[in-house]
Amino acid sequence: MFRKVLVANRGEIAVRVMRACEELNIGTVAVYSEADSDSGHVRYADEAYNVGPARAADSYLDHEAVIEAARKADADAIHPGYGFLAENAEFAGKVEEVEGITWIGPSSDAMESLGEKTKARTIMNEADVPIVPGTTDPVTDPEAVKEFGEKHGYPIAIKAEGGGGGRGMKVVWDESEVEDQLESAQREGEAYFDNDSVYLERYLEKPRHIEVQIVADQHGNVRHLGERDCSLQRRHQKVIEEGPSAALTDELREKIGEAARRGVAAADYTNAGTVEFLVEEEPGRDGPLGPDANFYFLEVNTRIQVEHTVTEEITGIDIVKRQITVAAGEEIDFAQDDVDIDGHAMEFRINAENAANDFAPATGGTLETYDPPGGVGVRLDDALRQGDELVTDYDSMIAKLVVWGEDRDECIERSLRALREYEIAGIPTIIPFHRLMLTDEEFVQSTHTTKYLDEELDESRIEEAQAQWGGDTGDGGASDDEESVEREFTVEVNGKRFEVELEEHGAPAIPTGDVDAGGAQASRPEPAGGESGGGSELEGEGETVDAEMQGTILDVKVDEGDDVAAGDVLVVLEAMKMENDIVASKGGTVTQIAVEEDQSVDMGDTLVVLE
Fold it and tell me: Which residue, among 536, 392, 380, has the nearest Cα to 477 in the 3D structure?
């Protein structure tokens, strides 16, 4: 077994992995960016290493920095969690080449085969697993997209090879959207997964999203742990997950489970993974979907899933521990017939978002109150404590509430109780939205599809829920009045020297450089992005278009001198792993562009000036 595991992730999943390590008597190492220096996973780990600045590409996605941290810590294994580098076959391959360090996950070869969606589709097709009509080779030319549309019809899904969870996926509704959507999907793939390769699929308009949890060892054993229903989604992002699916008969779930096992075995896959399927809904059905329902392979997630907790609650199997023991060469210690599904479980993603404001992510804030629920059948995966500052540089999910009941009805009632108990003040969350959904007829009857939230739910109901149960959401950010000062010290512990940085809040600024007797130097305000940004000083008059949240500029759509109309896209801003179009509120002429591609900006920074 391993001595020490470095967890190449942050937040609740990092803590989840560390807890599994602790139960196996394995030491833990955290990595963190400058934005995460005070975060919960850093507090929990036995030791922690800074891997770079806030921008993920310069820290959590920096291959060499993460591997170097593992060397410094003398870790003998790396667990990637989910997101970031978890499905990056290149990074997995680099770890495999490092002597003395084991990659906790599938091999880089299996990740490349199944993580790149076109290869996965080929493997599944050869294993007699149904697939949605689509391409088996990457697409780079808009003409290829148009030809596919002529053959199969619209809408078409353009998907990033390394994508997942809706990121890197764009829907083309007609030929006029081909160029823009292809470019956007390629850009998201490059930004989020370091891979701009994309492929095409026929877009199923109202399916259910069913996924099967798989665990496979190095001795040829493959087990499936039942299915999860992830059909409640917003813009392809899962919001509530549950298992088992109330929409499937036992015959259909067995067919889907065996298809997943077949496909994974054909790929020579090891460790944990999830095989995702789209199941065609039958409008007006009376009872669950039967064995003749159409289902299609969607993708394989070659990592632990956010919603793995649902499966753990209904099977009693610790999936993260199995990841670690399988990576250490141990054989799976249970047979397929030993997998029993007990009761029903749901997972609620606690996102720092305002559901009534188009699920806009919080731009800052302090957890003035953080009082999670408890009781029978209630599990909380988080990395928070009261008084923490909200870190807004990454995903907006701050915790996961997982509830188990003897059946779905009890699970819903218990979930309502737990959500009522869950008290968070100082930032907005989507807890009111979850409470609404647990009383929604479509969800309670399990007749919703992946399009229900985007196309059918009355948004005024979300606004009413937020008004009724939203509570104290704070002012959206920390106070600008309190100064923060960093001081550096050299200390010696047991004969070993350490350089220590202490951050002091509310202290007077430490003068640097030349200071006259009259007081501290004054300085000019910085352009967007501060000293490290690539922007220019603002000149002249005009209406400024400012960043509404912290993020990174992915694309500048206009040039100086362009005439724009109200609603025209000026800049594409990436924030919380989502692309956000920054549009003109009224017409005018672009007189200045204050930012450039790949530049980091803060909320309130000026992006464009219009006259």
Answer: 392
